[in-house]
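User: structure tokens for this one?
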Amino acid sequence: MIKAILIFNNHGKPRLSKFYQPYSEDTQQQIIRETFHLVSKRDENVCNFLEGLLIGESDNKLIYRHYATLYFVFCVDSSESELGILDLIQAGLAEALACAVSAVKNMNLPEIPRNINIGDISIKVLNLPSFK
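Assistant:
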């Protein structure tokens, strides 16, 4: 069972946190801090799994990936597959990236305006050299 999903940057600032078990706000903040300290100190070439490291419970695992400036961390119980969770992280990121690229490609950008009229003010836009 997934107990929490945490995303934070290289400085430990949470970008997303979703807890699937009730924890007080203070406990959630403590979990985020401890999780960041645990995963951020690990080398890039070591395993992405940590055992028994959620506050007050020993039957948990942290499964994480570090991409660019973000850490994606799943806190799960021992019944979850480590490789399945890593695949979930990777598939979710790939889908999000594909959606973002598609959105940018499908944007209808108008041509550069030649004249901008704001009330009584008219501004002529000069032709800018193109850099290729």
